[in-house]
Design a protein that fits this description.
About 55% of the residues lie in helices and about 5% in strands. The chain is built from five helices and two strands. Helix 1 packs antiparallel against helix 2 (about 50-70), helix 1 packs antiparallel against helix 4 and helix 4 packs antiparallel against helix 5.
């Protein structure tokens, strides 16, 4: 497979289904940000973490590729002329969101309750979780804006929202796993 096609040399790219759009198109920004998030989650996986968490992160990375494909497919191109779906893969669904909620609940049961906001940091792996959480929130904001302009599956936004929560709780869990210090944000009084 040839890596370069030269079809994007003038600042345009193709969505799934062939529609040509500028590379700054909001849909491109949405799935590009999801791709960036996926790369950072890979960076978390590359750290010293337990096998179970690594397994969950691989599942999430696969789901993010699916989510990106869903974002890359405009509503008017979802169905082929023969009536079949263009994107012939399992989509993000309620079970995908529920898995994140189960993982959040399981991790929350092993860490102290929050009494303050916490400052990101304390360990490299924890920082990668917080960076991923921030990128996830950005992807969610872009997807929300895209949904205001065109039709996208509403579960995309729900999934990204829940994933950012998962990444936050994972950061807290990994703080404990790595015997790092969680520093609470305590605003100074005037």
């Amino acid at each position: 497979m040839k890596i370069y096609t030269k079809t994007g040399d003038k600042g345009k790219t193709s969505l799934f289904g062939g529609t040509r759009v500028p590379k700054y198109d909001l849909r491109i920004e949405a799935y590009g940000t999801v791709d960036e998030l996926n790369s950072y989650i890979g960076l978390i996986r590359d750290q010293k973490i337990d096998d179970y968490t690594s397994h969950v992160l691989i599942k999430i990375q696969n789901e993010l590729f699916t989510l990106g494909a869903m974002l890359a497919t405009p509503a008017e191109k979802k169905i082929l002329k023969n009536g079949k779906e263009r994107l012939n893969i399992n989509k993000i669904d309620v079970k995908s969101v529920e898995l994140l909620e189960i993982e959040i609940d399981n991790m929350n049961g092993t860490i102290p309750p929050m009494t303050n906001f916490v400052l990101p940091g304390g360990h490299t792996t924890v920082s990668f979780c917080h960076i991923s959480r921030c990128i996830c929130r950005r992807a969610e904001r872009i997807a929300t804006q895209l949904s205001d302009e065109t039709s996208i599956d509403e579960l995309i936004i729900v999934y990204l929202n829940r994933l950012s929560d998962y990444l936050f709780v994972l950061a807290r869990k990994l703080t404990i796993d790595n015997k790092a210090q969680e520093i609470p944000w305590i605003p100074e009084k005037l």
